[in-house]
Design a protein that fits this description.
Order of helices and strands of chain B: HHHHHEEHHHHH
Pfam family, one (chain A): ABC_tran
Largest interface: B-C, 94 and 86 residues
Structural class of chain B: mainly alpha
Main location (chain A): membrane
Low-confidence stretches of chain B: 1-5
Number of helices of chain C: 11
Helix content of chain B: 55-70%
Number of strands of chain B: 2
Membrane topology (chain A): Peripheral membrane protein
CATH class of chain C: Mainly Alpha
Shape of chain C: globular
Strand content of chain B: under 5%
Number of helices of chain B: 10
Strand order of the largest sheet of chain B: 1-2
Low-confidence stretches of chain C: 224-256, 262-362
Strand order of the largest sheet of chain C: 1-2
Largest sheet of chain C: 2 strands, antiparallel
Radius of gyration of chain B: 23 Å
Largest sheet of chain B: 2 strands, antiparallel
Distance between the termini of chain B: 50 Å
Mean pLDDT of chain C: 69
Mean pLDDT of chain B: 86
Subcellular location (chain A): Cell membrane
Oligomer: heterotrimer
Number of domains of chain C: 1
Radius of gyration of chain C: 23 Å
Number of domains of chain B: 2
Organism (chain A): Streptomyces mashuensis
Chains: A alpha/beta, B mainly alpha, C mainly alpha
Number of strands of chain C: 2
Chain lengths: 253, 255, 362
């Protein structure tokens, strides 16, 4: 018996209370261990989709399942443990006075205490290479370090799927590469919302394009980036001088 | 400058006072100040004893006198008020250095200066020996409503972030050749303040989303708690108990 | 204006401490309501924390006045109008608490005095005046900054009045209250003008960008137009429409509370003028005091000699009397105004039932 996919979204449609409709029937399945990039122009509904994955938004049509568990009010606590969202601004994500307390927040909210909690915190910080910073206040870290700690806060909950919102934004090239190393080393399903197409190519074997509230394309990242017409149609542009054909396809783990 | 763990008044050294649990220290300082405030103002010797007690604590906490004295400046507006009192309060007068001063007013000025100074000194000692995080934990331990402590914690966490945004806005204004010089420019500054509010509020909404995403349901999980042994309580209580003894003696001797 | 230790005696400090604690407890409940979103989620901690951080930061924003002097915002009125009175009181209280504990700014035993005075009185008076004016003024966007101006203008001297009252109860020195009052209110009327200008400008700046965030103006928002999705049928169950938190059902209680607060404020002004104009009582007292003053004319070298002349031992009596008369008169006037307003509101409500857009599209 095969395990259920990490994420299964079917027929998801949603309109905000003010009448603005953001999603028009999204279908997306992500298998266990996959790394998928979610691409799309501004206003395509990417954030709306992400906020559906852990039940912050809901009440529209369609369904979301996380590892077989439907995202419904009754399972919200477990769903939020399974779906780890890393928000774009690490200052929003790191709201506790120290790195240790911040990483401990999620597991503690799930009921962990004492030595077990401490072990989770240490493990998560080690996985992002920030173990030596546990007692520092978050805003004394560099931006790249904060982003890595933000990933750790979510890893500490041992999520089924890691959802990253613009993980490479505002990072200098070294921090960008360090984060890529961290993400590659993780053994979790990853959904990465990004405008950074080379980053998507580097990290994700598969990409989907969300445009106008529906999935407009779903294919291996290299193929998508080479399809000039498709790219133009959805306002996606490669950085100057970057040729996806010249880059080796991302290695499967 | 730094907040987070340390704050402007915090002095990072290790001392017996630093080592005391925060809630013991807060309670001790509060009771001490209460005892000082309740002392009859005529008991000059009592205030001298209080000052000695604080000097003792400062020495134990390795807080230099200069640091303590500099921080007393916070009182200045009220010093001005106190200095006016001998002139404005009616009653019998005495002549000091050629000035006719009201006796009642002099006592009043002395009362405010002495008690206010001791109060500030005690608060400074508390702040100088207690980390930000510890202060919050101490307040929580002292049964301050947990929601209030949470709000305070968020305020301190984001105080610097918001101040930083304000600074960046100022730099942006000045880079475009704008310097506020008078009332005419208040409109521009107020627009910045309004923008700052919107940014702060929106950040609050995003922080809430991030919290909910990690399982927040309205109560903060207890991650860290401070505890105190009987011996620590006893050590912290030494200051307010001594002050209480002084107060009671002063009242007993009071005509 | 943070009161230090020793300024107010111990019993009154503890008393105001109790008042402050009770107010904060009430506001903790009220703020949950003000800050919850359309779904009713409790967002108090992060939002109030960020608003407190904003107040803390904006108090450091310098508004140059002239010749090198500058002022800054106190923020009570601004907070009340932007996020609602409960959250406003809560945020200012937290700021004061932290300033007391971290910066030794304001005495620990005077925390109750400071919170009662600067957080509770300022915010509540500002909000009462603001709501009253928003109801009375024509329902236009521009009414909001105007009401904010008046609210901030009144709130600062109101805090000075409250402080004088606390001082009358528990001041450690018997300063002639008339003088404390005159000085406090006089200075704070000036400060209030600055506060009012900045508050009004800031509120209108927020109104221009995110009118939905201005708590005090939520009732004035135009209903949002609903666009239908192009062609596709969606079974989206629109979440409960955002609760109009700012337009509560018109119960009598807030009305009464607002009326009382307004009356106290007006009473402050009335007794202020009463105490500066030499009325009969004061004149008598003045005459009585003359013998003392003439004796002291030898002390003319003292630059402050003038201050003694006006000193009257009975100024407390005259001030008190004036205050009582003032409260009586204003209560009567206030009740009258409120009755009129209520009638107008009822009429407006009936009109609302008939036409769905009372604000007009102007």
């Amino acid at each position: 018996m095969t395990p259920p996919p990490s994420l299964q979204v079917s027929g998801l449609a949603f309109a905000y209370p003010d009448g603005h409709q953001a999603l028009f029937g999204v279908d997306l399945t992500i298998g266990r261990g996959e790394r998928v990039a979610l691409l799309g122009p501004n206003g395509a509904g990417k954030t709306t989709l992400v906020l559906h994955l852990n039940g912050i938004l809901g009440g529209g049509a369609g369904s979301v399942h996380v590892a077989g568990l439907p995202v419904e009010k009754a399972h919200l606590a477990e769903v939020r443990r399974r779906v780890g969202i890393v928000f774009q601004d690490p200052d929003d994500q790191l709201f506790m006075p120290t790195v240790r307390e911040d990483v401990a927040f999620g597991p503690a909210a799930a009921g962990l205490r004492g030595a077990e909690l401490e072990e989770r915190v240490q493990e998560a910080l080690e996985r992002v290479g920030m173990a030596g910073f546990a007692d520092r206040p978050p805003h004394h870290l560099s931006f790249g370090q904060r982003r890595r700690v933000a990933v750790a806060t979510v890893l500490a909950m041992r999520p089924e799927i890691l959802v990253l919102d613009e993980p490479s934004s505002n990072l200098d090239p070294a921090s960008r590469r360090e984060l890529a190393d961290v993400l590659r080393s993780l053994d979790v399903t990853v959904l990465m919302v990004t405008h950074d197409l080379p980053y998507a190519l580097e990290l994700c074997e598969r990409s989907v394009i969300l445009s106008g509230g529906v999935i407009a394309a779903d294919a291996p990242t290299g193929e998508l980036l080479c399809d000039d017409e498709l790219m133009r149609a959805h306002r996606l542009e490669l950085p100057f001088g970057f040729d996806p054909r010249s880059v080796a396809a991302p290695a499967r783990r | 400058m730094g907040a987070g763990h340390s704050h402007p008044l915090y002095r990072a050294t290790s001392s017996p006072v630093h080592a005391l649990p925060p809630h013991c220290k807060i309670a001790a300082v509060f009771c001490f100040v209460l005892a000082v405030v309740a002392t009859p103002r005529e008991a000059l010797w009592a205030f001298a004893l209080y000052a000695l007690l604080l000097a003792g604590v400062a020495a134990a906490a390795r807080v230099p006198a200069g640091f303590l004295l500099r921080r007393l400046l916070v009182e200045v507006p009220f010093v001005a008020f106190a200095l006016l009192l001998p002139f404005v309060v009616p009653g019998p007068r005495v002549t000091v250095l050629g000035l006719h001063l009201g006796q009642e007013g002099l006592w009043g000025a002395w009362n405010i200066l002495a008690k206010g100074t001791l109060g500030v000194a005690a608060s400074v000692l508390l702040a100088a020996t207690t980390e930000l995080r510890a202060l919050l934990l101490g307040l929580q331990r002292l049964r301050l409503p947990s929601l209030l402590v949470q709000i305070a914690a968020f305020m301190l966490r984001y105080g610097e972030v918001v101040t930083d945004e304000m600074r960046r806005m100022r730099i942006a204004r000045e880079s475009r050749g704008f310097t506020a010089r008078g009332v005419r420019h208040w409109g521009v500054l107020a627009k910045s303040a309004g923008a700052l509010f919107i940014r702060s509020y929106e950040r609050g909404e995003r922080v809430h989303l991030a919290m909910v995403s990690r399982g927040y349901t309205g109560t903060m999980p207890v991650i860290q708690e401070v505890t105190a042994t009987g011996a620590q309580w006893a050590r912290a209580a030494a200051l307010p108990l001594a002050a209480l003894a002084v107060t009671l003696t002063a009242w007993a001797a009071h005509p | 204006m943070h009161v230090p230790d020793g300024f107010i005696d111990a019993p009154v400090s503890l008393g105001t401490g109790a008042v402050a604690a009770a107010s904060v407890a009430v506001c903790l409940r009220g703020a949950r309501r003000e800050l919850s979103d359309a779904q009713g989620t409790d967002r108090t901690a992060p939002l109030a924390g960020l608003v407190a951080a904003f107040v803390f930061a904006v108090q450091m924003l310098n508004f140059p006045v002239a010749a090198g002097t500058s002022g800054h915002l106190l923020g009570g009125a601004l907070a009340a109008i932007l996020v609602g009175p409960y959250t406003g009181v809560l945020c200012i209280s937290v700021v004061l608490l932290m300033q007391g504990v971290l910066f030794a700014d304001g005495g620990l035993t005077a925390l109750g005095v400071n919170i009662t005075d600067m957080a509770v009185v300022t915010t509540v008076v500002a909000y009462a005046v603001f709501r009253l004016l928003v109801k009375v003024l024509p329902r236009r966007r521009r009414a909001v900054p105007a009401a904010a101006f008046a609210a901030a203008l009144v709130s600062v001297p109101a805090a000075a009045c409250a402080f004088t009252l606390i001082y009358a109860l528990g001041g450690t020195t018997d300063v002639p209250l008339g003088q404390v009052f005159t000085a406090m209110v006089g200075v704070h009327v000036l400060i209030g003008i600055g506060e009012a200008v900045i508050t009004a400008l800031t509120v209108s700046a927020v109104m221009a960008v995110r009118p939905d965030l201005v708590h005090g103006a939520r009732g004035l928002a135009r209903p949002l137009e609903l666009r239908t999705a192009d062609g596709q049928v969606t079974t989206a169950t629109p979440a409960t429409a955002p609760a109009p938190a700012a337009t509560p059902r018109r119960s009598v209680r807030p009305l009464l509370a607002g009326g009382l607060a307004a009356a106290v404020v007006l009473a402050g002004f009335v007794s202020y003028y009463a105490s500066t104009s030499p009325d009969g009582l004061e004149k008598v007292a003045h005459d009585k005091g003359i013998d003392r003053t003439t004796k002291e004319h030898a002390a003319k070298d003292s630059p402050l000699a003038d201050y003694q002349v006006k000193d009257v031992s009975d100024s407390r009596l005259s001030g008190g009397l004036a205050g009582v008369i003032g409260v009586g008169a204003t209560l009567a006037a206030g009740t009258g105004v409120f009755l009129v307003v209520r009638r107008r509101d009822r009429a407006a409500d009936r009109a609302t039932d008939r036409s769905p857009d009372p604000a007009g599209t102007a």
